């Protein structure tokens, strides 16, 4: 039986692995996906519920803040709309009447206003009527609003005309113009003030400013309801004005006035407060929101883990069961590939595997018989062709050589005669080679040298040959008689002038050995080269070349063989490729 060469193994994924991967994709991955989406949906539900709870808490805080803002605004509106107060502020009288009006009318009204709220406020009134006396408990520039809580100061309006918070106050819109703003020492004492004009209603088109009021209240008292502990530890509550400046903060998260969000690990919820475009913002750590979901996440992970373990073992069992059956088929196929076509396998059952086994067994028997017939026939045919080629070459070559030896004897050239006889004997010894068809490359080259020594003795300087052989390749093997036929062909058909030069090279290129036979002879046309390799058109041409090519491919494979490159008038290059085998 012939033995086929082993092909280089390729990386592959076993059927069992593919089955296991498919099983995991369609069984295990859905389990993971279900667990993941279940947890995500639960977490989203918890987040939404937490958000709704916090939103409700913020609304309560907002309502509390707005109630207190409206309470302070009510005091300012009480003074703003007091017609009798405005009338008194409009009269310019000096002396005792002015003092008496202040004592009996203005101060009682201001006292009632200050004490009409539950908040501890400090009120400042700036009057345009300078005939009214100032009443205050400390210098305006060094005031301490906390010491004035529950009381009021009266100053002349000129004291604040150059203050930015007064000069930049918006134009009056009849009772609608009012601002909450931090002025003077409010920031230092943690306070904020409501600013509002007092105008003369006698001329409603002019709305002349006759006074200005500032009601200061502690931010801690105003925003008392803003307590981070109501929404969870680690949270923060921030009140910002319309410019994003922080008015009040409860909590320990560092948030600057320019930050709308302290970080991606916080959930931000906002509510608008009052008519001043304030924002009440809650920053809740995601860890607080996910406290309840952690237990559920652990529970879901455990369920998914146990399911994965169960399904994995089930998948391994199923995969191993089918892999064992498939490996039997692969084992027989590998045996077929190695040339052992007598391997057989048996399967019980009536499934597809038993059908495959039966088909493979039958195929092995048929292929074995066919290969036996075809292989033996091809070997016998090629051996007959080789013998025929040798029979064609040797008698003609022997006749010419003996004729040359006879002439040398006639002329008494004993040395040349002796060399030619020795080379002739060496050539035939290597040609016979005890009947072996595979020989070392060293022997193939020695045969070429013996042949060329005979030819150079005959033709003299008209023929020259150059060898360029890498020493490492001479111990590899080749089918015999693959170089000499091409050299002989060049000497018979390639003469172009009175001389011819031949170059024989051999080197290793990767896993192959490449020979090149190059001559500077007459060359060949592309049509002639095509005919040489065509067994029909080249019936009377290139028999030796086709013989060498078919013997190489028969022994080593169709990826090896002979190629020809030629240009008429320039020369021909024969390339022979064989595998590097020892």
Written account of the structure:
The chain has helices spanning 15-80, 83-90, 96-114, 164-167, 186-189, 219-222, 286-289, 291-337, 352-411, 414-432, 441-459, 484-493, 526-533, 543-556; strands spanning 121-127, 151-156, 178-181, 191-199, 209-218, 236-240, 246-251, 266-273, 278-285, 438-440, 463-469, 477-479, 500-509, 512-519, 561-567, 571-579. It has two domains: 50-287, no CATH class; 370-579, Histidine kinase-like ATPase, C-terminal domain (Heat Shock Protein 90, 2-Layer Sandwich), CATH 3.30.565.10. With 582 residues, the protein is of the alpha+beta class. Residues 1-7 and 255-263 have low confidence and may be disordered. The two termini are 21 Å apart. It has a five-stranded mixed β-sheet with strand order 2-1-5-4-3. A five-stranded mixed β-sheet has the order 11-13-14-16-15, covered by helices on one side. It catalyses: ATP + protein L-histidine = ADP + protein N-phospho-L-histidine.
Reported for the largest beta sheet, the result is:
5 strands, mixed
The helix count comes to 14
Oligomer: single chain
Briefly note the structural class of the backbone. Answer: alpha+beta
Strand order of the largest sheet: 2-1-5-4-3
**Taking all residues together, what is the mean pLDDT?**
78
Percent helix, as a range, is: 40-55%
Number of domains: 2
Per DSSP E runs of 2 or more residues, the count of β-strands stands at: 16
Write the H/E string, N to C.
Answer: HHHEEHEHEEHEEEEHHHHEHEEHEEHHEE
Subcellular location: Cell membrane
Catalytic activity: ATP + protein L-histidine = ADP + protein N-phospho-L-histidine
Keywords: ATP-binding, Cell membrane, Kinase, Membrane, Nucleotide-binding, Phosphoprotein, Transferase, Transmembrane, Transmembrane helix, Two-component regulatory system
Domain Histidine kinase: 482-582
């Amino acid at each position: 039986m012939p033995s086929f060469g082993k092909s280089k193994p390729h990386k592959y994924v076993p059927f069992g692995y593919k089955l296991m991967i498919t099983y995991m994709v369609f069984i295990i991955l859905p389990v993971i996906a279900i667990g993941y989406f279940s947890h995500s949906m639960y977490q989203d539900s918890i987040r939404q519920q937490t958000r709704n709870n916090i939103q409700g808490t913020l609304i309560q805080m907002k309502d509390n803040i707005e109630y207190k803002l409206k309470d302070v605004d009510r005091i300012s509106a009480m003074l703003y709309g007091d017609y009798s107060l405005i009338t008194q502020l409009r009269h310019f009288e000096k002396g005792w009447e002015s003092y008496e009006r202040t004592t009996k009318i203005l101060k009682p009204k201001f006292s009632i206003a200050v004490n009409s709220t539950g908040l501890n406020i400090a009120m400042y009134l700036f009057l345009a009527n300078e005939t009214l006396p100032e009443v205050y408990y400390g210098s305006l520039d060094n005031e301490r609003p906390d010491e004035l809580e529950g009381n009021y100061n009266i100053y002349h309006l000129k004291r604040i005309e150059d203050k930015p918070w007064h000069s930049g106050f918006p134009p009056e819109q009849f009772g609608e113009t009012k601002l909450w703003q931090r002025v003077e020492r409010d920031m230092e004492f943690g306070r904020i003030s409501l600013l509002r004009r007092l105008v003369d209603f006698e001329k409603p088109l002019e709305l002349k400013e006759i006074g200005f009021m500032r009601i200061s209240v502690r931010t801690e008292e105003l925003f008392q309801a803003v307590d981070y502990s109501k929404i969870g530890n680690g949270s923060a509550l921030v009140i910002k004005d319309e410019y994003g400046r922080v008015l009040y903060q409860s909590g320990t998260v560092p948030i600057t006035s320019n930050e709308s969000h302290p970080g991606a690990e916080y959930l931000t919820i906002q509510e608008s407060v009052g008519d001043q475009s304030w924002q009440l913002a809650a920053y809740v750590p995601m860890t607080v929101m996910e406290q309840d979901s952690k237990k559920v996440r652990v529970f879901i992970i455990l369920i998914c883990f146990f399911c994965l373990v169960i399904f994995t073992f089930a998948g391994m069992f199923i995969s191993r069961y089918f892999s064992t059956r498939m490996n039997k088929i692969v084992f027989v196929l590998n045996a077929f590939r190695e040339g052992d076509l007598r391997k057989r396998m048996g399967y019980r059952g009536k499934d597809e595997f038993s059908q495959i086994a039966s088909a493979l067994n039958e195929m092995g028997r048929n292929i074995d018989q066919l290969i036996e017939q075809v292989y033996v026939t091809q070997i016998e045919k090629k051996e007959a062709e080789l013998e025929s080629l040798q029979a064609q070459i040797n008698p003609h070559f022997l006749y010419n050589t003996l004729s040359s030896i006879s002439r040398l004897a006639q002329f008494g050239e004993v040395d040349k005669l002796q060399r030619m006889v020795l080379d002739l004997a060496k050539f035939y010894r290597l040609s016979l080679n005890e009947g072996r068809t595979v020989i070392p490359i060293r022997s193939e080259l020695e045969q070429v040298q013996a042949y060329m020594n005979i030819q150079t003795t005959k033709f003299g300087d008209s023929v020259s040959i150059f060898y360029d052989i890498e020493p490492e390749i001479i111990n590899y093997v080749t089918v015999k008689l693959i170089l000499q036929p091409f050299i002989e062909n060049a000497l018979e058909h390639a003469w172009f002038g009175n001389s011819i030069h031949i170059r024989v090279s051999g080197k290793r290129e990767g896993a192959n050995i490449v020979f090149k036979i190059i001559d500077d002879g007459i060359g060949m046309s592309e049509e002639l080269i095509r005919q040489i390799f065509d067994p029909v058109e080249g019936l009377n041409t290139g028999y030796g070349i086709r013989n060498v090519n078919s013997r190489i491919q028969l022994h080593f494979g169709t990826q090896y063989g002979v190629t020809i490159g030629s240009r008429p008038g320039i020369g021909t290059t024969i390339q022979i490729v064989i595998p590097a085998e020892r």
